[in-house]
Design the sequence.
């Protein structure tokens, strides 16, 4: 009998029983007021007259009117760069203890996003909320006695001037509390290895010594790790070596495109719990098993705003127009795509994180990630967002009974006519013409804008199938393997030329 596990489970359930019901709209109003009060004497707060905003009857409305939107480059060039010059109290009191390095999906150059002590505390509290939510998933007591594998970036942070730098997953893992270290795998020594392939090799060699009950990480890199463990020990599936594996917490990207290939590595279904941790903060987590949507963390250091996802609001570089309509949590509707805007205890203000979301339940503040502003293909009026692309690829998987964990797409001219050129990451041997026809039909049936474009400027779809490994090697060559790195779903013309040349070289 799992006595210790029963005690832990009972403690979690007891705590949740006495946790007050969330009131997201009121919580957000309070969070904004707290952010403005704490930052009013910073350079940013003085420049945008936070003191005056706090005196207004409608703080949310005035804040939206007086403070512009910022993407990373605008925020960094105008404000955060001063932190690297030794200034303090720039956009948040003091100086940050960490900078999260994030190349994201845009290229080799890392973004350097401040992570303050207040943000570290906010992430810690969000983690406690997520652990508390486990009480809703009816997990057996013995689960709470197993070990937890976190596959993120290296925890070997770089010391620079008066702060440390690394990816947010590495920063978070480096601050694991002492009481959890006995449960945490792959452990401090392996987690500090910078080279991703070497780290995964060490995980594979040590896998037999661990009793893993839960996994956490970006789906694409986690799959590669599981495959390596299976290959190293000549197994049929991962449950052959980790029989008590019961939970996977995904994060940062929609899990659905990876679902089929991920499940193929298991002997039986496990509980998948989505989380949303970005370099800018811990945004949301799945709170209940009846839905795959995630609950926004509305009471903990982040104020959210939402811009309707309309082509006229999106500029060529992926940023948004300053005259774009913006809504607060009390004004949103379900099943509409919004560009996510954040103001945080790390001194990000009206910050474009680059993700699009949709609400599945406004009262509960539950969302799903629907894509990226830069992964929006509208060259010839097709208005394809990532969630529509994901749905079409899922249709292909079901129609042909194949796995397509990765893909990328660009609008490209062939003989003077525009086509959507798709590269599908699959080991299946289906004829590319059949895949293209099925993909085109699925998109036309599900998307009226795409159907209209197909009758005019968009002449068709072309498909090239390549091994999924090519996508992972591309990420390794252009950025870095593992961690928070995600594959570009949509590429511009120049980037796509580089991609096609890379594919040709790595056939």
Sequence:
């Amino acid at each position: 009998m799992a006595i210790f596990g029963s005690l832990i489970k009972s403690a979690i359930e007891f705590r949740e029983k006495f946790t007050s019901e969330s009131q997201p709209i009121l919580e957000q109003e309070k969070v904004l007021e707290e952010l403005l009060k704490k930052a009013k004497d910073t350079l940013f707060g003085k420049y945008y007259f936070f003191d005056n905003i706090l005196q207004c009857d409608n703080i949310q409305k005035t804040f939206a009117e007086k403070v512009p939107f910022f993407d990373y480059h605008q925020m960094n060039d105008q404000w955060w760069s001063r932190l690297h010059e030794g200034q303090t109290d720039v956009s948040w009191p003091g100086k940050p203890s960490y900078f999260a390095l994030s190349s994201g999906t845009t290229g080799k150059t890392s973004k350097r996003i401040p992570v303050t002590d207040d943000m570290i505390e906010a992430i810690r509290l969000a983690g406690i909320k997520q652990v508390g939510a486990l009480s809703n998933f009816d997990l057996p007591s013995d689960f709470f006695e197993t070990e937890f594998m976190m596959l993120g970036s290296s925890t070997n942070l770089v010391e620079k001037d008066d702060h440390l730098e690394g990816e947010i997953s590495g920063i978070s893992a480096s601050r694991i509390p002492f009481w959890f270290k006995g449960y945490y795998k792959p452990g401090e020594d392996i987690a500090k290895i910078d080279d991703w392939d070497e780290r995964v090799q060490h995980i594979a060699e040590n896998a037999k010594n661990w009793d893993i009950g839960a996994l956490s990480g970006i789906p694409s890199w986690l799959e590669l790790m599981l495959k390596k463990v299976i290959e190293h020990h000549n197994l049929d599936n991962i449950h052959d070596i980790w029989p008590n594996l019961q939970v996977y917490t995904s994060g940062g990207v929609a899990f659905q495109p990876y679902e089929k290939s991920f499940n193929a590595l298991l002997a039986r279904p496990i509980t998948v719990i989505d989380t949303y941790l970005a370099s800018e903060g811990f945004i949301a987590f799945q709170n209940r098993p009846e839905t795959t949507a995630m609950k926004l963390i509305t009471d903990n250091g982040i104020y959210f705003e939402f811009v309707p996802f309309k082509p006229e609001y999106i500029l060529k570089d992926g940023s948004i127009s300053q005259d774009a309509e913006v809504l607060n949590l009390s004004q949103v509707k379900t099943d509409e795509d919004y560009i996510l805007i954040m103001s945080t205890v790390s001194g990000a203000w009206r910050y474009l994180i680059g993700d699009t979301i949709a609400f599945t339940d406004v009262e509960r503040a539950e969302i799903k990630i629907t894509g990226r502003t830069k992964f929006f293909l509208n060259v010839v009026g097709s208005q394809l967002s990532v969630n529509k692309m994901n749905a079409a690829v899922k249709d292909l998987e079901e129609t042909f009974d194949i796995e397509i964990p990765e893909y990328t797409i660009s609008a490209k001219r062939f003989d003077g006519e525009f086509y959507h050129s798709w590269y599908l990451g699959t080991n299946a041997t289906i004829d590319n013409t059949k895949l293209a026809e099925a993909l085109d039909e699925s998109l036309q049936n599900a998307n009226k804008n795409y159907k209209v474009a197909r009758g005019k400027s968009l002449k068709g779809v072309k498909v090239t199938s390549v091994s999924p490994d090519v996508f992972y090697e591309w990420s390794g060559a252009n950025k870095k393997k593992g961690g928070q790195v995600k594959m570009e779903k949509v590429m511009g013309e120049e980037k796509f030329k580089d991609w096609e040349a890379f594919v040709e070289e790595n056939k």
The radius of gyration is 23 Å. Residues 117-133 form the longest helix (17 residues). Residues 386-505 form a domain with the GMP Synthetase; Chain A, domain 3 fold (CATH 3.30.300). Residues 1-12 have pLDDT under 50 and may be disordered.
